[in-house]
Amino acid sequence: MSEADTVCVWLVDSALPPVLMSELAASLDEGERRRADEMDPLRRREFVAAHGAARLLTGRVLGMAPDRVRWRIGRHGKPEVDGLRVSLSRSSGLAMFACTARRAIGVDLQRVDEGLDVGRTADRYYPADEARHVADCPPHERPTRFTGLLTRKEACVKAAGGRLFPGLRLPVHGRAVVRQADGPYRVRDLPAPTGYAAAVALAGIDDYRVRAHRWPDEGVRPW
Q: Is the pTM of this model over 0.70?
């Protein structure tokens, strides 16, 4: 398997030291700073940590300073950059950034919502077999099953550059390859902290390896 079929994933915690947060904030472009300034302090911290780390990690791969990274915004707000395929997801204080050399990519991280009526929501939006999969387990396990399916759907939708709502009907349970209107996507679940679920999807049917990191702790796990 070539390096072109390798996905690098970083888990980023927004609880970073003030000095590091200042460095990340300084790397943002004008538009990102405006967006951050419009947020409450908690959301601003999460935004700066996620987008600053995405810039730093992208710059590291491409051999440039973080503030030299120039995003283009694709369909439905997906960030794009010359020389790399990237995806970013944020949820409840954590972020996940993923990149690969050439295949369209989507990553999704979700906090498991214990208060959501997942049975009713799955019945309404998911395919029938997935709604049964959510229902066919003890009640305390249903939010985790529901969220695991949701991250797979959103990863595929993000890779395609589409919107989530129509993607809720996308059949993903038990599938390594998910087929959308524009072609197939190979999806994989990712390990995530307790109370979260995560998945990544790449365009095409070919398999790929995942190299997982925590940032700024650079330990690597070959998932």
A: yes
Residue 113, token pair as written in the block: 């919502």
Contact 132, 142 (CB under 8 A): no
- Domain containing 98: what range? 3-16+72-222
Residue 80, in any domain of the structure: yes
CA distances from 2 to 5, 86, 119, 135, 181 (A): 5, 18, 41, 40, 27
For the residues 177-185, what does the mean pLDDT come to?
Answer: 90
Q: What is the CATH number of the domain that holds 86?
A: 3.90.470.20
pLDDT > 70: percent of the chain: 94
- The answer to whether residue 59 sits within a structural domain is no
Number of domains in the chain: 1
Q: Give the type of residue at 176.
A: A
Looking at the predicted structure, is the pLDDT value of residue 102 above 60? yes
